[in-house]
């Protein structure tokens, strides 16, 4: 991909992952503007739909999307769109994926099995992606090659560690995706 340095470019990037993996937090740590969040309180209506066992303290959830903006240079702006993580909102993914250049896929190493439907959607929509293993307090720190193997990823798919609460860590994960996109679109 060639980006003319004399022309301004806006690039759409998705931040995706399963329910409760940290997508909203990631966009909040990266965005230079106050992020748009469509979070609602989790109510009894989610019983039978949302598995809260991996996130027992979760009180809100994204019901449409999150949005943030990050200016990388005078000519390059990233528009960050976070998808909802629940299966029942997957129809939103198709709309959000239109025009997206790639996706940063957040995974929880303690709930990798929940990442397979996410990876299926990302691949179905033809998005180039990188994996960011979001570390939660008190969880096991698995070697990245074990995460790669467990997710059955190709050797070319970048896999990095990330703490989405930390701006620098989130930025490094996003930079990994951008570099991967540039190498794929070259």
TrEMBL record:
- Show the Pfam families listed in the entry: ATP_bind_1
Q: What superkingdom heads the lineage?
A: Bacteria
* SUPFAM superfamilies cross-referenced by the UniProt entry: P-loop containing nucleoside triphosphate hydrolases (SSF52540)
Q: Can you tell me which residues the record assigns to a coiled coil?
A: none
Question: Which key words tag this protein in UniProt?
Answer: GTP-binding, Hydrolase, Nucleotide-binding
- GTP-binding as a keyword? yes
Q: Does the keyword Nucleotide-binding apply?
A: yes
- Gene3D superfamilies according to UniProt: P-loop containing nucleotide triphosphate hydrolases
Q: Which family does the record assign?
A: Belongs to the GPN-loop GTPase family.
* Name of the protein this chain belongs to: ATP/GTP-binding protein
Source species = Streptomyces yanii
